[in-house]
Amino acid sequence: MSDTRTVTAADGELLLYTGTAGRAARTGHKLTIRMNQWTAETTFDDDGHPTSVQLTVEVDSLEVLKGEGGLAPWTGAEAGVARGNALKSLDAKKFPDITYRSSAVVRDGDAYAVEGELTVHGVTRQHPLTVTADGDVFSCETVVTQTDFKVKPFSLMMGTVKVADDVHLTITATVPAS
Question: ∠ CA 61-64-69 to the nearest 5 degrees?
């Protein structure tokens, strides 16, 4: 017998970290972004090990927490501009959700190899993950390449400063008991 548990942003944190690229990359800010609305439906076997996961992230819940580096100091106004640019790049009105659907979960000690499909910007691709467990706290780190999902990284000054193509993602969540 299995049970399904719901995990939301109230149970953890999903963060994105962007870098900069281009000839003038050092002039841009590296961003830390939090996704404030997401839900994961996770099914567990009788021994309490996950057997599947389905994650849905609301793109419009994106919040720019901070910007680091760059030539000019980071201001609160820049956070709003960066958020708008990110929503435009992701075409959030046309593609309001990012989803991940597992197809297989294999346990290896306190870690799980997860095979599944990630859908961003209307494009679905295979995206394997490694999820670690520490009691009821599960965490994962991965890299998503924007252009793999037909997302054009934001750029300015004719491309001399742009968001790096690879975006680092971390998610940590406490799964409620059944």
Answer: 160
The model's pLDDT over 41-83, given as tens digits with 9 standing for 90+, comes to: 999 888 888 899 999 999 999 999 998 887 778 887 888 888 8
List the helix and strand counts (H, then E) for the chain. 1, 15
Q: Give the helix ranges, DSSP H, for 9-90.
A: 76-89
Ramachandran area for residue 118 (φ above 0: left; ψ -120 to 50: alpha; else beta): beta
pTM of the shown model? 0.91
**Which of helix, strand or coil describes residue 1?**
coil
Exposure string for 47-81, b = 16+ CB within 10 A, e = fewer: eeebbbbebbbbbeebebeebeebeeebeeebbee
> CB within 8 A of 139, min separation 6: which ones?
131, 132, 170, 171, 172, 173
**Domain 3-174 class?**
mainly beta
